[in-house]
Amino acid sequence: MVILKTVPEIAKMRAAGRISQRALQLAGKAVEPGVSTYELDTLIRQYIEKQGATPSFLGYGGFPASACISVNHVVIHGIPSKAQILQNGDIVSIDVGACLEGYHGDNAWTFACGDVSKEAQALMDATREALFEGIAQAVAGNRIGDIGHAVQQYAEARSYSVVRDFVGHGVGAKLHEDPSVPNYGIPGHGLRLRPGMVIAIEPMINQGTPRVRVLKDKWTTVTADGLLSAHFEHTIAITSNGPVILTSPD
Ligand code: MG
Cα of 183 to ligand 1 centre, how many Å? Predict the structure, then answer.
């Protein structure tokens, strides 16, 4: 069931979203060769807690950290670790949620570690741009399929593939709510978007096959062919004045 949010609820979600975005940016600035993913996770947890919020992911379904940090061929749900030291040329996807006064904000970004290859940079650029193509369709009266189609078309036109096993989602008092927001779709199909809906749009775009597999730790999700993947996400409110990015820094 899709839960519509009131204007005051959306204002609370904006505050949660701002904290999650600032935590993400803080971690992004710290991405450099020699840093462990555990250190990034610690920065994120400390920042969120200092704001009086809680990291949405910590303990979620048993997840052991405050952020998912997914390097190179890891698509999503990478578990931060002291043993994982970032190398020059890595691409680092960081996914962060913060919960403030009972409402969540959820966002992700893929950062370059040092000097990345032209191919890696192009994948990151296309995934970020695909996210904004999707956001532009998050307009009352459109349908869920319009968002997915925009993302899919943008990525596939550049010979990338769209992960299908994981999708975006509603956000609210729960981190994951209805509806599902796939990064693929048919224009004019699916649930109609209404003011008060809050959704996370989060393209996961692969260099090679769209297929992924989950490792034995039951979290870490990797590309089936070992090629790179990028992930960008914002939490968006659908309003009568168009899409509003709740996970923006100011
Ligand atoms: Mg999400």
Answer: 12
Rounded to the nearest angstrom, the distance between the alpha carbon of 200 and the centre of ligand 1 is 6
pTM of full prediction above 0.70: yes
Q: Compute, in angstroms, the gap from residue 202 CA to the centroid of ligand 1.
A: 6
CA angle 135, 121, 158 (to 5 degrees): 60
Q: If you measure from the C-alpha of residue 107 to the centroid of ligand 1, how many angstroms do you get, rounded to a whole number?
A: 6
- Express each pLDDT in 12-28 by its tens digit: 999 999 999 999 999 99
Ligand 1 centroid vs 122 CA: distance in angstroms? 23
pLDDT at 250: 84
